[in-house]
């Protein structure tokens, strides 16, 4: 499926300034590789970086987090590498406490649910265990993360002193996929079944829309982003775009979000996707 070209984040100075104006603190899950690592890299190297960036992953001291740790050493006053296993509620609670001790009453401005897993099996190939593991990571993880970090998001919304919704005030952006769209199953299933991934991401979409409705009174923005088919460990070598291009687009979209996009399902260009 052909993807359109992306707006360049670095060339969109107005969006950079908008996000930087109030986005004091940002948290990214699954930050040790792929899109998550690229998000951390681009945000911290922007001309107007945030003050605190919590880069979370399952094993911060393991070999798969070496690139993240190297990046953190270059920006020790901004990046804090924190353990967060999306499938472990105790880990999520501990991370929320650690983040809370840093952000205080200022709260957490932007939470990016990026951690996820992909299994490529068909219905007949997918076991109950496969489905459960995928669901635990892609749905239960984000649900528990939202719940545990909700006090910090509420604090950020209150501290902003500005009306409306934005990613620089208080927002949760979850990385979904066009494979979650019910409307495109017929045209995409044969080439990429991945049934547990599709179902779990559809569940993530519903979770996000429900959260957007339930928490709109708190002025916390919820949105879903499809990063495109990206050449990463998860996306494979045949993807349409590379991680820097995808992340440039997603950061640009995040910076432009308002209450009009609360509960929206968008691609990395900001285009609405079918449910």
CATH architectural designation: 3-Layer(aba) Sandwich
Query: What portion of residues is helical?
Result: 40-55%
Largest sheet: 7 strands, parallel
Tell me the strand order in the biggest sheet.
3-2-1-4-5-6-9
- CATH third-tier fold name: Rossmann fold
Low-confidence stretches: 1-22
- Pattern of helices and strands: HEHEHEHEHEHHEEEHE
CATH homologous superfamily classification: NAD(P)-binding Rossmann-like Domain
How would you sum up the global shape?
globular
Question: Care to count the β-strands?
Answer: 9
Proportion of residues in β-strands: 5-15%
Provide a count of the helices: 8
What would you call the structural class? alpha/beta
What is the arithmetic mean of pLDDT?
90
What is the terminal separation in angstroms? 17 Å
Q: What is the alpha-carbon Rg in Å?
A: 17 Å
Number of domains: 1
CATH class category: Alpha Beta
């Amino acid at each position: 499926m052909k993807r359109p070209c992306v707006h360049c984040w670095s060339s969109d100075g107005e969006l950079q300034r908008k996000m930087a104006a109030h986005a004091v603190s940002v948290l990214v899950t699954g930050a040790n590789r792929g899109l998550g690592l690229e998000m951390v890299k681009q945000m911290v190297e922007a001309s107007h970086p945030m003050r605190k960036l919590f880069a979370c992953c399952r094993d911060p001291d393991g070999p798969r987090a070496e690139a993240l740790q190297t990046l953190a050493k270059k920006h020790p006053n901004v990046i804090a590498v924190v353990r967060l296993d999306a499938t472990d509620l105790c880990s999520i609670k501990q991370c929320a406490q650690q983040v809370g001790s840093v952000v205080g009453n200022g709260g957490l401005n932007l939470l990016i649910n990026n951690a996820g897993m992909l299994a490529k099996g068909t219905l007949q190939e997918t076991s109950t265990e496969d489905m459960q593991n995928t669901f635990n990571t892609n749905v239960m993880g984000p649900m528990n993360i939202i719940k545990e970090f909700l006090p910090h998001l509420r604090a950020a919304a209150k501290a902003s002193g500005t009306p409306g919704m934005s990613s620089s005030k208080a927002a949760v952006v979850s990385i979904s996929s066009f494979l979650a769209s019910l409307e495109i199953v017929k045209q995409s299933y044969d080439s990429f079944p991945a049934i547990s991934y599709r179902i779990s991401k559809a569940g993530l979409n519903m979770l996000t829309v429900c959260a957007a409705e339930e928490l709109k009174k708190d002025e916390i923005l919820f949105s879903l982003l499809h990063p495109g088919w990206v050449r990463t460990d998860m996306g494979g070598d045949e993807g349409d775009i590379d991680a820097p291009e995808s992340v440039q687009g997603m950061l640009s979209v995040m910076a432009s979000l308002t209450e009009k996009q609360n509960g929206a399902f968008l691609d990395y260009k900001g285009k609405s996707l079918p449910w």
